[in-house]
Amino acid sequence: MLKGQNVHALERVKVSQDDTNRPDRAEVEAAVQTIIRWAGDDPQRDGLIETPSRVTRAFEEFFSGYAQDPVEILQKTFDETEGYDEMIVLRGIPFESHCEHHMAPIIGRAWVAYIPNGRVVGISKLARVVDVFAKRLQIQEKMTAQIANTINEVLKPQGVGVIIKAAHHCMATRGVHKADTDLVTSRMLGCFRDNALTRQEFLGVAV
Ligand SMILES: [Zn+2]
Question: Which CATH class is domain 3-62?
């Protein structure tokens, strides 16, 4: 398990916008043109002429998570909670991601739970943390761990549980061609890992 600074160093990774190694938009559009020509079509024909710039804008959205810092998102917390210390669960958060092996869509939902230790975070922030990690090149196992680790590091709650269920288009539309399957991953930390009742309660609300 990753601990402390390692987690931050690994998971905050923000791509700075003025990174000199970062290709500019024209280079990305040219690369898309190359793929179109390689596929056997003519990037200059009417229907395709705007495609490279559209694809570039779409990719900009798909990978917008690199420019966002999940730690910053969770930083603002509230401590006037009347001592609330039960489970908080945000269920079925929809997300779209892309697999790092084929850049094919991963479409799924996340269940994010924690038991606070005095401080709580705005619930929309839990959904935003899911999005920050989804909008990067991913494997589901890593994304599940990143979400749980980050919440654990920043909020320092009594425990965190994350479950993700997702369909992988690299498996549905190519390769083994198995549509209608989904992959379930989970990461339990703190009391979610140590206490069977807590884990059961979470699994009960999540399924
Ligand atoms: Zn894949």
Answer: mainly alpha
